[in-house]
Design brief:
Distance between the termini: 16 Å
Largest sheet: none
Low-confidence stretches: none
Order of helices and strands: HHHHHHHHHHHHHHHH
Shape: globular
Number of strands: 0
Strand content: under 5%
Number of helices: 16
Mean pLDDT: 88
Structural class: mainly alpha
Oligomer: single chain
Length: 464
Amino acid sequence: MPHTTAFTVPAIRQEVSSLWKLAWPILIGQLATVGMGAADVAMTGHTTPDELAAVSLGAAIWSIVLVTVSGIMMAINTLVAHEIGAARHGKVPHLVRQSLWKALAVGMVACVLTNMAALVFDHLMLEAHVAAKAKLFVHIISCALPAFAAYRALYGYSTSINQTKPVMVIALAALALNIFVNYLLIYGHWGMPKLGGIGCAVATTCCVWMMLLAMLAWIKYAPAYRATYPFTHWEWPQASAIGPMLRLGLPIGVTYFAEVSAFGVISLLVARFGVVQVSAHQIALNFSSVVFMVPLTFGIALVTRVGHAVGEANLRRARFISWVGVAMSLAAAIVSAACITLFRHQIAQAYTSDPQVQALCAQLLLFAALFQLSDATQVATSCAIRGYKVTRQPMLIQLLAFWGFSLPIGYVLGLAPQGFIWSPSAPMAAAGFWIGLVTGLTVAAVLLTWYLNRLSLERLRAAI
């Protein structure tokens, strides 16, 4: 491959085609995975507001931990992509085996921390039965975390060797199973117990373990994995391999935590305004997370594409791929922003039959439409940066954006506390927190775009 790539129309068209070919199965898989959470909220939304509130609060804790674990395990994507780009296929099996040991430790620690985090419900101004249901939801669903961490290790390995079809097929199967088990357990059909929102936790736990078993089977029998098959022999954990993975993955996990925890903490703070506010907020947030899968998918594909180019020592092409990927994410964001704005009332009605929740949700979805551009930009640029095997700087930027801007601004506007230099005359509740989110995402997008440009130019000049 020549080490020159100009921003010409044919070159851009070819890269768009290559990135889309890699990304579209991941997109379907990501949408199906997030669709499991959307199905939980939507199907519970047609029971009672109390059940929906309990699932929404439990899902807030679950989402924070889930996304953080996903980020910590994402180191395997970059490491395998670099080895494949450098044509060192023999090193990949060792990386995968050590990543699975890392997954076991990360999943167990995450399970313990998730159960401890559920204690927060005892200190919120919630009705006792809502708090109890939210805690039970978290206790049950935490059992899926070891399986999820291992699945993400294999997921990263598979996508980094350009095998994205398995993640699509497995996620679609899991979504179908999740909806079916939800149907049985939420409403008590076919003689099954009527568990309400707790049925969602049982269904999700079963589905995550199924996804891990299905991925193991696919890797074992599919010919595409033969050259890098990781299960040829037993291998004990090695600190010399797991240590660098943690140093690369922990900043990604903190980066993801910085963003999703800001959303999660806001869900907990909004809870004090009652069931209508927290339910509308969670529905808008849940739908936003579904839409977010499009730019996130381009980001995951960018880690592989940029990682391959960097592994080949083709820094000019790595920079070219990065900016084409960012542009694709922005184009998708423009479409999603327009769709959310036009169909916000229909979206709210699809989630809940409560008129008050529908009306407030439609208002919050306008904020969701507003931050589509900045959200797409920040996720695409941060993933491109990770393709260069750089993770600490994006972490610092995300921490500043979400904990230095989003939460403080949202706190002042949402709660209108006394003693600040300025605050609104009355709390803006959920709307105030969403204004804070828009601000934080914009700060992240601007700073990460600046850093990607600087990093890619520095690496290119150093290679010349």
